[in-house]
Amino acid sequence: MKLVELNSPVENMILARAIVTEEYNELLPKGTVLKKEYIDKLIDLGITEVYIEGGDITEEEAKILKEDVKEKCRAQVQTIISRHTYKSDNSDMSSINSTAEDIISNILEDEKVVKQIYEVRERSADIYEHSISVCSLAMLVALRMKLDRETVKEVGIGCLLHEIGLRYITVDFENVDISTLSEKDVNEYKKHPIYGYTAMQEESWLPEKSKGIILGHHERIDGTGYPLHTKDQPIEQCIVQVCDFFDEVICGIGYERLKVYEVIEYLKIYKGLSFKKDVVDELFSFVAVYPAGTIVITSSGEKAMVIGQNKGFPERPVLRLLTDRNGNSITERIIIDLLEHNSLFIKPNIG
Fold it and tell me: Cα 314–316–321 angle (5° rounding)?
């Protein structure tokens, strides 16, 4: 891929990265063919450069799982859970083991994978994709916290099945804050960990730690979670609680969707209270607060696009300035690395 100016001949070229607003709304998805009307609209919005396919920039957006692995695992989980839910068929449930093994092997095949910064983006509520996302996040946290491989795999298996109880309820939970529902619906929603655990507790192939994750993924270390309101929880459950909440709010399962930085701010407030502090800190160490392509406003008032990340500093990305503080377009290429500008920050969007 390569970064090109929109005022150069780019019509009919293909976007290599999605174009995202400062509110994390996707303007154009990756793979879009750039038509003239798209180009004109982007320029009107103050966007002057885009990444297109081809060229000599070979670095791809860092992802925990390769797209083909992610899609394969999602399809496997959907098939298995659907068969279990609609046909009461548990005959191939144990193949979840191999799905978890595929994911951990994919994460470990390149030693750099455990050390990179990753860009988790907003998306629609899909419990199968959510399960894969939580699985990869939780496995990566567990690996970085030096848990043994068998425990990491058990974490992964539990994550792949942790939302199975949602298949047994009729409450609408997509992009809905459950606290706004009727008491009856809230109580029904909060039973889904019990439904899931009950459905799987007799499966002898399923590790006890994985069963515990299905039951305890909504517990909190201060006892405010559900369904058991327990405070003393094993580390694998604490890991999944953080990763599950993070991804649920991003994709809108039981919550209204928030931007990544908003979820991170929430977790900052509640780490050490509702969520285990060292787990939250580990997640923060590799999740980018502002994904590449995001349009942001600096504390000095300039509009900028995030074009890169700084390892170990997810809140201090590299920016390409688009407009000055007065709103005038900047035509020259000005790159601001926030690690080198200690007094400059990305301004939260309060609108």
Answer: 130
Phi-psi region of 231 (alpha: psi -120 to 50; beta: other; left: phi over 0): alpha
Is residue 256 pLDDT above 50, yes or no?
yes
Of 23, 121, 27, 119, nearest to 349 by C-alpha is 23
**Sequence-ordered alpha helix ranges (H) in the chain:** 36-44, 67-87, 96-108, 127-144, 149-161, 183-189, 192-200, 208-216, 235-251, 260-270, 277-284
The residue among 108 and 345 whose pLDDT is bigger is 345
The Cβ-side half-sphere exposure at 106, using a 13 Å CA radius, reads 23
Return the closest-CA partner of residue 325 out of 296, 297, 301: 301
Q: What backbone torsions phi and psi does residue 172 show, to the nearest 5 degrees?
A: -75, 115
Provide φ and ψ at 198, rounded to 5°: -60, -40
pTM for the full predicted model: 0.77
The strand pairing partners of 15, in sequence order, are 52
Find tokens 């649920």 and name the residue.
248
In whole angstroms, what separates CA 80 from the centre of its chain? Answer: 23
Q: How confident is the model at residue 8 (pLDDT cuts 50, 70, 90)?
A: confident
Backbone angles phi and psi of 321, in degrees to 5: -65, 135
DSSP-assigned letter for residue 32: -
pLDDT at 106: 85
Better-predicted residue by pLDDT, 17 or 178 = 178
